[in-house]
Amino acid sequence: MASTPSDARSPSSTPPGRGFHAAVLLIVLAWTLLNLPFLIGHSAIPWDSLDEFFPQVRFIVDAVWHGEAPWWNPYLHGGQPVLGDPQGMIFTPQTLIGIVCGRHFNRMVFDLTTLSCELAGGIALARYARSYADSRTLPILGAVVFMAGGVATSRLQHVPQIVSYSLLPLQLLALRAGCRRPTALRTALLALVLASVIMNPNQVVFLSGFALLPFALWHLHQSQFPRRAILGIAIAALIALLADAPMLSAMLEFMRLSNREQFDLAASASSSFPWFNAASIMLPGLYGVLSPRHGFWAPTDLSQDVLYIGVIPLAAALSSLTSPRRMPAVTALSWGSAVVWFVFAVGTHSPFYPALFRILPGLAAFRRPADGAYLLNFSLALLVGTARLPNWRSRAASAATLVTAVALVGMFGGACVSLLLYAQRVGHAPDLLPVAWAWALRIAVGGGAALLLRNLPRSTAHAVAAPLLAALTVTDLAAAGRWSAVFAPPVHTSDVAQIFSDTLAWDTPRTPLEQSVTFLRNNATGEARPPYRMEALGGSLAGSMPIAFGIATTQGYDPLWLRSYGDVVGVENLAAEAKRFTPAAPDYNSPVYRRLGLRYVLLHRFIIDHPWDFGETGVVTAQIRAEFVASDWAELVNAPGTYEIWRLRNAMPKAMLRTDDGTQHACDILAYQTVTVSVRCRSADPGLLVLGDPVAPGWRACVNGAPVPVEPYQGLFRAVSLPAGDNRVTFRYQAVPFLRSHRCGK
Q1: Rounded to an integer, what distance in angstroms lies between the CA atom of residue 634 and that of residue 512?
Q2: Rounded distance, CA 527 to CA 393, Å?
Q3: Pair 326, 351: CB distance under 8 Å
Q4: Structural domain includes residue 675
Q5: Percentage with pLDDT > 90 across the chain
Q6: Domain shared by 633 and 661, yes or no
Q7: Domain span at residue 228?
Q8: Residue 214: inside a domain, yes or no?
Q9: Mean pLDDT value across residues 66-83
Q10: Average pLDDT for residues 221-228, to the nearest whole number?
Q11: Residue range 718-744, pLDDT digits in tens
């Protein structure tokens, strides 16, 4: 029998499986305390979770419960693919839980599912690290860092990425198991994990293949059966790719037709860390998190620049460099990975990322180097979990503790100086004072805990080390951001969070925002088969919130859209940007908007009343309102609520027949579903049936049971040629390119 690898674990350490249930209980308790504001309903995961991802999942859940396929979303950007969207959220735990909950699915269930993903990942990371750490405490601290350190708190809003991030430790466990003892069952489990990862193909998934490769090679090197292990990994990867081939083919097609091809290296500059952001790993509550009343001053974006992992975990990681014992290979790999992924996140500020951008296929489809911070936090959590501490009772331990303290200061000295210069430049140098005090307090508490453990009897120290250090780390991370009003804002401060916290159904509107939503739901745009669309300028309804209610909007919030739609209509996140018209659609009275069926334009009342407080957005909104007042095609609706609502009188019906002489008349919509639209047209003359929805590959048409080509009209709309007479036309959408057929029928 082959001996155990020397760096797997020391002979005196506890086998990884023995007593692990106690570690799991402690991790669950830490997770509960960290997420207490969310669990008791006080706080909501903010920003994109509310504005983009929950509405998207709500749409998918509603479509499934109505017996419709959610491959196409007719409510967002006039209509666009969902299956091909890398952030489409179809194959995620949130969607599965939503389908199970049905009409009881709400924002709280959605948030709990997101948080539970981090818990599962944290437990898996501790299980993996337990094999290499000579302490029961450090894997628990690694799990806490994984669940709440860095991006696990600051970017909790980016739900698809958090799901993929949470699967990283499960991939490591499955890879290690497949290398140690390759069996058919372990190959199948690895295939299942890989397929689950690839089903949610965002940039974290793309980058994780490179992040896990060194660990996979190391486990193959340690394997007693390397050839069988390589074969098992190859088979599992092939099975996963074949299982996900339909989704991947739809995604590649959508990406080619989307705005992603417009991304160049310059688009990555705004999401590239400055080098001094390394200080954020050490300093708690940086960039205004501790004092939001003074304003935020993050160099790129607050949600991506906060990387703090806690003083005690960072000290544990640094002490692994000073330990006289040999560093385990997995710890060395974690150190290397942490450095590589921070340099990657620096993006355009170093030559590393630009070189990768040019030579690495697929990287140019993404624009955010800061996404490397997910892999950075994963590497740091793994580093903490597998570190080997010196024996605190020896003289070497005293020296190591001193060296660690010096390293903790010296390692980030240069970054802190650069940070101070930046803070002075942006007028926030005084905001570093509470950060410094918070850091000093944590150093003092951590040092006191180390002294306490050193002077306790050995058996007592072993018993209290894990709960004590875990409790201090939980308190540290909670105070530095997890419980802050920035990353865990109270529900009562957000109308959207309050509305999404119920079942999205009410008899009497309770808030002004609900009054606006109720009006739209009751006036054509919110019917199950909406014949018309709306567009909101400013506020929550300018994002993706409308799709949660089945309200069709010409805009919305999704970073990916059909390029043809953007070229003709234009795409903006009107919740944060000023309205911009295009040459093809220069105003709301243009034929393009009329054919889209734009019936209502909503102007946020607060912006109307305070236009000069909103810069360009306020000026443009005031200009649009003045145009409405002077026009004969827009009328103000007497409706209470957050928005002033203008009805456009000239919106065209969704389906129109245009004859050769230029005349047009409406056709009857018999059925309007996510992937099927049925129309009946009667005409004495042949003509062109134009549907006011975007054209895209995958849409095919049948006229009276015979297939006909779908043509673009005005570069945007779906159209088919019809003969004279009574015609029944059915449009059907097939998202998967290799499953498409020109045959008619179901």
Answers
A1: 23
A2: 72
A3: no
A4: yes
A5: 81
A6: no
A7: 21-274+297-310+324-394
A8: yes
A9: 95
A10: 95
A11: 999 999 999 999 999 999 999 998 888
CA distance 136 to 513: 51
Do 721 and 629 fall into the same domain?
Answer: no
Return the amino acid letter for 131. Answer: S
The verdict on 635 and 689 lying in the same domain is no
Residue 69's contacts (CB-CB under 8 Å, 6 or more residues apart) are 63, 674, 675
* Residue 372 maps to a domain: yes
At position 418, the amino acid (one-letter code) is S
Tens digits of per-residue pLDDT, 423-437?
999 999 999 999 999
**pLDDT tens digit string along 629-675?**
999 999 999 999 999 999 999 999 999 999 988 899 999 999 999 99
Phi (first) and psi of residue 556, to 5 degrees: 120, -175
Residue 110 has pLDDT above 50, yes or no: yes
* Count of alpha carbons within 13 angstroms of residue 536, beta-carbon side: 30
Place of tokens 């911070």: 373
Structure tokens at 147: 């669940």
Number of domains in the chain: 3
Structure tokens at 317: 């990681």
Indicate if 623 and 698 belong to the same structural domain. no
Q: What is the pLDDT of residue 13?
A: 42
Of 113, 114, 136, residue with least CA distance to 27: 136
Residues 639 and 692 in one domain: no
pLDDT tens for each residue of 384-431: 999 876 555 555 555 555 555 565 566 677 888 999 999 999 999 999
Kindly report the number of other CB atoms within 10 A of residue 222's CB atom: 18
626 and 713 assigned to the same domain? no
Task: Name the token pair of 118.
Answer: 């981090």
Question: What is the spatial distance between Cα 709 and Cα 746, in angstroms, rounded to a whole number?
Answer: 17
Which pTM does this prediction carry?
0.94
Residues 707 and 678 in one domain: yes
Residues in CB range of 265: below 8 A, 6 or more apart = 348, 354, 357, 358
Length of the chain equals 746
Q: Of the residues 648, 678, 704, which one is the last residue of a structural domain?
A: 648
Q: What angle do CA 334, 340, 341 make, to 5 degrees?
A: 90
Rounded to the nearest 5 degrees, what angle is found at the Cα of 572, between the Cα atoms of 75 and 372?
100
Alpha-carbon distance of 662 to 658, in angstroms, equals 6
What average pLDDT does the segment 500-504 reach?
91
Given 648, 664, 685, which residue is the final one in a domain?
648
Say yes or no: 613 and 699 in one domain. Answer: no
Residue 236 lies in a domain: yes
Q: What is the pLDDT of residues 573-617, one digit of tens each?
A: 999 999 999 999 999 999 999 999 999 999 999 999 999 999 999
Residue 204 corresponds to which tokens in the numbers above?
């974290």
The dihedral built from the CA positions of residue 606, 609, 610 and 614, taken in this order, carries a sign that is positive
The residue written with tokens 């991947």 in the block is 248
User: Rounded distance, CA 128 to CA 142, Å?
Assistant: 10
